[in-house]
Amino acid sequence: MVGGVDRYMQIARCFRDEPSRSDRQPEFTQLDLELAFANATDIMRVVEELLLHVWPLVQDIRKDCCLLQTPFPKMTYSAAISQFGSDKPDIRFPFRFCEPSRNGSVGFKIPSSTVSFK
């Protein structure tokens, strides 16, 4: 960082310099954050503050948006994999991996013929 500026943000229109794929847009808009001497906690704080600032504008357009509360939920990679089986869990739903009971009770109604304990 030069000129005594310890941080800046820019919104940039980007074009992919790679062959087209069905799962990627050839052009997109990105927010570029540059922070001098920042750690992961600093970056998460800045992104949370930024989203809290712009979220009311989103809510004006999309009335079905939820309210944001800080701090945003955080979890380790290990916790995400062990609880959800994914490093990008959808935490809107309370479904977690768990060890089924050995007595045959799984806590929700499913046909008993589909569950076998060996």
Summarize the structure.
This protein is an alpha+beta fold and 118 residues long.
Question: Going across the major beta sheet, what is the strand order?
Answer: 1-2
Give the overall shape, derived from the CA principal axes. elongated
Approximately how much beta-strand content do the residues carry? 15-25%
pLDDT < 50 runs, ≥5 residues: none
Mean pLDDT rating? 84
**SSE succession:** EEHH
Q: How many E-type strands?
A: 2
CA radius of gyration: 22 Å
Helix/strand structural class: alpha+beta
- Number of discrete helical segments: 2
Question: How does this structure look, described?
Answer:
The relative contact order is 0.09. The radius of gyration is 22 Å and the shape is elongated. The protein has 2 helices and 2 strands. A two-stranded antiparallel ribbon has the order 1-2. The protein has one domain. By secondary structure, it is of the alpha+beta class. One of its GO terms (molecular function) is aspartate-tRNA ligase activity. This is Aminoacyl-transfer RNA synthetases class-II family profile domain-containing protein. Keywords: Aminoacyl-tRNA synthetase, ATP-binding, Ligase, Nucleotide-binding, Protein biosynthesis. InterPro entries: Aa-tRNA-synt_II, aa-tRNA-synth_II, aa-tRNA-synth_II/BPL/LPL, GAD-like_sf.
Protein traits:
118 residues, alpha+beta, two-stranded antiparallel sheet, nucleotide-binding, ligase, aminoacyl-trna synthetase, GAD-like_sf, aspartate-tRNA ligase activity
